[in-house]
Design brief:
With 491 residues, the chain is α/β, with parallel strands linked by helices. The protein has a 16-stranded parallel sheet that branches. Strands 1, 4, 5, 6, 7, 8, 9, 10, 11 and 12 form a 10-stranded mixed sheet that branches. Strands 15-18-21-24-27-29-31-34-37 form a 9-stranded parallel sheet, with no helix packed on it. The chain binds uridine-diphosphate-N-acetylglucosamine and magnesium ion. The site of magnesium ion (MG) has 2 residues, from loops.
């Protein structure tokens, strides 16, 4: 049987993202665009801005360590991103020239951005395209005002104040160096003009590179409507060259992610850091300095309080994670409570309404619905039934030095404080374990297990002990005194 294939729509706009550079100043074996900020590689943020703005095609120009970049991008975006290879990094115009090989023939407009400028909102690209359309210009570019323009290309203007050229820092005259309106590197260009212009750009400049910025002077001369300009605030146009700049863009991105969740109806305190892939339902609440990473998911009404660190954690409806708790690769059910100062390690499940209290560590453990482990316990490789109670100081002795073993605690069972359950072992349904027990054998349903030395009371023994201790103290004092007597003088 044959399937009819859906008609493919012809792409009209391509967004080309330059990411071939090495990023030497990162001092890292990882390509620059794969360094992460707020839980996603830099290039992910750039690609998402392109997709948000609306584009028919995304072309990523790769070069340095390209296979690593291609693999990472394909894992997330599949066929939504096409790749072009720039084998040698000879400048931004050369990169675009390489990119043109992957641009769909029907494309009439190319938007150019950088893979190391992650905070650009899709909105800015959308407005850039609109600006070019409304001014019927061959080229539109974003410009921005900065206090310190060092390193940036400067916007040189004509008599009417319109952009006439971009002068790279190293090619600037003393007067041009004073210009504070700079080029952040974002353009929307007519495709036919771009193809033609690229063939005329030379590397005759201070750096011996093919400058994409030469497009601006070419476009200004090519038509009366020449170059359109979209001023934008500098914070979201920051690029990353070193790890200090990486930290700076990360805080911008965290702020942006937090604001997105706030607008969607979540309460998020200042200082909380929520990464890119975290999902939060409306009505959840996050305290100051909480860090939410990976594929963490919070349901409506969930609270994650001050200073918690959640990594790939799922928190159910109305569950409360109290201050300074750490949860990794685990799930917390509806209405459950965790913390303060709890550590829920991978592959654990705290079921609905269960409680995990302070200084309790769970590892690969299922705590049944309504079960409680409220204070100071290590619970590793446990399967704990509904409404069971694990007393303060209980240890699940799950490791014999070679292997991990499971401890099972039945529904409604009560494990008294300071007990050690030596796995593999199972405590039956509604059974009791007396405080301070060391349990090495299974406990049947409904039974009481006591595994501790029997207590003995010796009448009147207190006075005898005190006398013995006092005598010992006197003997010590006497021996010190004799040792410190002055010795006889020898004439
Ligand atoms: C470029 C601009 C400058 C602007 C600045 C903003 C040019 C000539 N200059 O300068 O006007 O103010 O960005 O940050 O365009 N890349 C490649 N292949 C190459 C060279 C660069 O893919 O051969 C990529 C890099 O990976 C990077 C981007 O293009 O993502 C910018 O390259 P970079 O070398 O940082 O350009 P700048 O000198 O900063
Ligand atoms: Mg740069």
């Amino acid at each position: 049987m044959t399937h009819a294939t859906a008609p493919t729509t012809s792409p009209k706009r391509c967004t080309m993202i330059l990411a071939a550079g090495q990023g030497t100043r990162m001092k890292s074996p990882l390509p620059k665009v794969l360094h992460t900020a707020a839980g996603a590689p830099l290039v992910t943020w750039a690609i998402e801005a392109a997709l948000d703005a609306g584009t028919d095609q995304v072309v990523l120009v790769v070069g340095h360590l390209r296979q690593l970049v291609i693999d990472a991008v394909q894992a997330r975006f599949r066929e939504r991103v096409a790749f072009a290879v720039q084998t040698e990094q000879r400048g931004t115009a050369d990169a675009v020239r390489a990119g043109m090989a992957a641009v769909h023939p029907d494309v009439t407009e190319v938007v150019i951005t950088y893979g190391d400028v992650p905070c650009v909102p899709g909105e800015a690209l959308k407005r850039l395209v609109a600006q070019r359309a409304s001014s019927k210009a061959l080229l539109a570019l974003i410009t921005t005002e900065v206090d310190d323009p060092t390193g940036y290309g400067r916007i040189v203007r004509d008599a009417k104040g319109r952009p006439a050229a971009i002068r790279e820092h190293k090619d600037c005259s003393a007067d041009e160096l004073k210009i504070r309106t700079v080029n952040p590197g974002l353009y929307a260009v007519d495709r036919a003009f771009l193809s033609l212009a690229l063939s005329s750009i030379s590397s005759d400049n201070a750096q011996g590179e093919f400058y994409l910025t030469d497009l601006v002077a070419l476009a200004a001369r090519a038509s009366l409507s020449g170059v359109a300009e979209l001023p934008w605030e500098a914070v979201s146009l920051r690029g990353v060259n070193d790890r200090a700049e990486l930290a700076a863009v990360e805080s911008v991105l965290h702020q942006r992610v937090a604001d997105r969740h706030r607008r969607a109806g979540c309460t998020i305190a200042t200082g909380a850091r929520i990464d890119h892939d975290v999902v939060i339902e409306a009505g959840a609440s996050i305290g100051p300095d909480a860090v939410l990473r990976g594929k963490t998911t919070l349901a409506a009404g969930a609270t994650v309080d001050v200073g918690c660190v959640l990594d790939d954690a799922t928190v159910g409806i109305d569950a409360v994670v109290k201050p300074y708790s750490v949860i990794s690769r685990s799930a917390v059910g509806a209405g459950a409570q965790v913390g303060p100062f709890a550590h829920v390690r991978p592959e654990s499940v705290v079921e609905d309404g269960a409680h995990v209290g302070n200084f309790v560590e769970l590892k690969k453990t299922r705590l049944g619905p309504g079960a409680k482990a409220n204070h100071l316990a290590y619970i590793g490789d446990g399967v704990i039934g509904a409404k069971a109670n694990i007393g303060a100081g209980t240890i699940f002795c799950n490791y014999d030095g070679f292997q991990k073993h499971t401890t099972t605690v039945g529904e409604g069972a009560f494990v008294g404080s300071n007990s050690s359950l030596v796995a593999p072992v199972s405590i039956g349904r509604d059974a009791y374990v007396g405080s301070g027990s060391v349990i090495t054998r299974d406990v049947p349903d409904e039974a009481l297990a006591i595994g501790r030395a029997r207590q003995e009371n010796k009448a009147g023994y207190g006075a005898r002990i005190r006398e013995r201790l006092l005598a010992a103290r006197r003997a010590i004092a006497a021996s010190i005194a004799s040792a410190t007597q002055p010795t006889e003088k020898i004439e």
